[in-house]
Amino acid sequence: MTRNLTSLIAAASLALFCLISPGVKADRSWGTVATLEVLDGGSTGDGHYLAALHLRLEDGWKTYWRAPGDAGIPPRFNWRGSRNVADLRLTWPTPDVFLTSGLRTIGYHDELVIPIEITPQTPGQPVRLKGRMELGLCKDVCIPSELSFDHPADLDADRHPAIAAALAARPYSAAEAKVRAVTCRLNPSPYGMKVTARISMPSAGGPEHAVIEGGTPDLVATETKSWREGGTLVAETELLPAGNGPLVVDRSALRFTVLGTSHAVDIRGCTAG
User: Fold this and answer.
1) Taking the CA of residue 137 as centre, how many other CA atoms within 13 Å lie in the half-sphere pointing to its CB?
2) Is residue 7's pLDDT more than 80?
């Protein structure tokens, strides 16, 4: 059985577990489980502006990181309707690791603030953020949800404390975490490409959970396994094609996140090895 099929079965098992959990009321209203608003963060001083999506969750509920783990639901964003926006760059704060029925998921509880750096098409002109966020929400049940937003940005706003806190909670860069080297070995697998990465870095605090992402929309990564060999963290996953196109793995586009108990590390790219 391939790891991809194993992951799909695990996801289905978690969904079934959630749906049949005791105490779930059939008449539960989901309208207040999560609310979403846009925060203003003002100018960055280089012609860009800061904003953030602020998601508030009811007590006990959680949502997922961009790479949600074994059985999570990855968030997706649609920015259609935004005005005077040339580019958007999201910064994800360090997520938590959850273990449910032996499955690992990665995400957030209580609230989530995602800072957004906005590059305007025409500097100095009004900016409007409009769109929707598709996400998964879990407690006793797991439900897909869609939240809309429409916000004219206040370009003269001061830096919002919640945005500053979310930026401070981002993972360390490779340089900040004193990563010495990252090498990757690629080997064809029956359905994709097996990636084995060796990351030379000090411990981020044990236990460490590593996540490998393909870095492009046409690649899907299965669950990452990781272990320590002295000063080297070894991480292994299988990359699968998201569609029917050819499987192409660019080492420079691979993204590695190490989630430790003391800090997290965000690493971009690797060399052959």
Assistant:
1) 23
2) no
- The fold for domain 172-272 equals Immunoglobulin-like (2.60.40)
Q: What pLDDT shows up at residue 49?
A: 97
- Asked if residues 185 and 196 have their Cβ atoms less than 8 Å apart, the reply is yes
Sole residue written with tokens 């929707």: 132
Residue 259 CA to residue 247 CA, distance in Å, equals 28
Residue 239: is it exposed, middle or buried by C-beta count within 10 angstroms (0-12/13-18/19+)?
Answer: buried
| Rounded (5°) CA angle 220-12-210 | 45
Summarize pLDDT for 93-134 with one digit per residue, the tens. 999 999 877 889 999 999 999 999 999 999 989 999 999 999
Tell me the CATH number of domain 32-168, given options 2.60.40.10, 3.90.960.10, 2.60.40.1250, 3.30.200.20.
2.60.40.1250
Q: Which residues contact 120 (CB under 8 A, 6 or more apart)?
A: 47, 48, 49, 84, 85, 86, 127
Q: What is the pLDDT of residues 194-249, one digit of tens each?
A: 999 999 999 999 899 999 999 999 999 999 999 999 999 999 999 999 888 889 99
Q: Which residues contact 3 (CB under 8 A, 6 or more apart)?
A: 222, 223, 238
Which of 173, 172, 25, 169 shows the shortest CA–CA distance to 111? 169
> CA 215 to CA 8: how far, in whole Å?
21
pLDDT digits 0-9 by tens, 11-23 = 444 443 343 333 3
Q: Could you tell me whether strands 142-152 and 128-138 are parallel, antiparallel, or unpaired per DSSP bridges?
A: antiparallel
Condensed to tens digits (0 to 9), the pLDDT of residues 43-54 reads: 998 899 999 999
Q: Alpha-carbon dihedral of residues 3, 6, 11, 13, nearest 10 degrees?
A: -160
